[in-house]
Specification:
Strand content: under 5%
Largest sheet: none
Helix content: over 70%
Shape: rod-shaped
Number of helices: 7
Number of strands: 0
Length: 297
């Protein structure tokens, strides 16, 4: 073992901070392990990391070896007890004439089956009560397993139903997606058409607003007011017609005077008379129009 730590003297070990006790434990453990298989310990460099790892492995290995030795000792003791008990039972059976050699093959087979059943039921004796208790325990476990199986089958059925519904919904969504993808091109074309129409409508709106402003300016210029409604205009037209009916005979009379011989005095009187009648008619027309406007207000 002196060749294992070639170039690593005690002073270097202390300088590097190695734990000497751990190194000795690791060396002893490695020697034990490799000597048990008839091989030499390979050369390697002792570093803090390797020493820590090997010491951990050695501690675990020793603990497991000790535990295995305890279990093996217990098993050996139990085997000795079982052998002594088997010898005692064999002696008792031979004394009562029930030795295995003296029994028939059927009895031996039945006993073997009984032993196998006892091992299967994990019982330590062949008493009927033990078999009944073991069978009852198996029945309870079987019932529990059947209940769990029924519950699992029910849950599986529910999950299967959910899966079918999910598959149907997925199929519907795929069909809907395909339909929407087919409708994309027509909808885009319609949207482009709507955009074009919207631009035209915006242009028309600006044009109509400009025309409205122009017409409003014209109406303001000619003196139009909201008081002049369609009903007022209709009423004024009717009054105009009545005035035309009243002034028509006067105009006809004036035209007939144009055919008379020239008499300045008579003509002057007639003209003055017609002027008064005409002025009276105009005054009546103004009064009618003013009264119509006052009624509207």
């Amino acid at each position: 073992m002196g060749d294992l730590i070639r170039g690593a003297d005690p002073s270097a070990t202390e300088k590097s901070g190695f734990d000497a006790s751990r190194i000795s434990e690791v060396k002893a453990w490695l020697s034990t392990q490799f000597d048990s298989v008839g091989k030499d310990v390979p050369e390697f460099e002792y570093t803090p990391r390797s020493i820590a790892h090997l010491h951990s492995l050695a501690t675990i290995s020793q603990a497991k070896t000790q535990a295995a030795a305890i279990v093996a000792s217990d098993f050996r003791q139990k085997a000795v007890e079982y052998r002594s008990q088997a010898a005692r039972i064999r002696e008792i059976l031979e004394n009562v004439g029930l030795a295995q050699d003296s029994l028939s093959s059927n009895v031996v087979g039945s006993a073997q089956v009984l032993a196998n059943v006892a091992n299967l039921l994990n019982i330590r004796d062949t008493e009927l009560s033990s078999f009944l208790v073991a069978m009852g325990d198996i029945s309870l476990r079987k019932t529990g397993v059947e209940e769990k199986r029924a519950k699992v089958q029910k849950e599986s059925k529910i999950l299967l139903d959910y899966t079918r519904k999910a598959i149907a919904r997925l199929t519907y969504l795929k069909r809907t997606l395909a339909q929407l993808e087919d409708d994309v091109a027509p909808c885009e074309a319609q949207m482009e058409n709507w955009k074009t129409n919207l631009a035209i409508m915006v242009s028309k709106e600006r044009q109509y607003l400009q025309q409205y402003s122009n017409y409003k300016a014209i109406l303001n210029r000619v003196g139009y007011t909201p008081d002049i409604s369609h009903g007022v205009l209709v009423e004024m037209a009717e009054h105009r017609k009545e005035l035309e009916k009243k002034t028509k005979p006067i105009l006809d009379t004036l035209r007939s005077y144009q055919d008379l011989p020239p008499d300045k005095a008579l003509a002057a009187l007639a003209i003055e008379d017609k002027k008064r009648q005409f002025a009276a008619a105009e005054k009546y027309l103004e009064d009618v129009l003013q009264s119509a406007l006052d009624v509207t207000e």
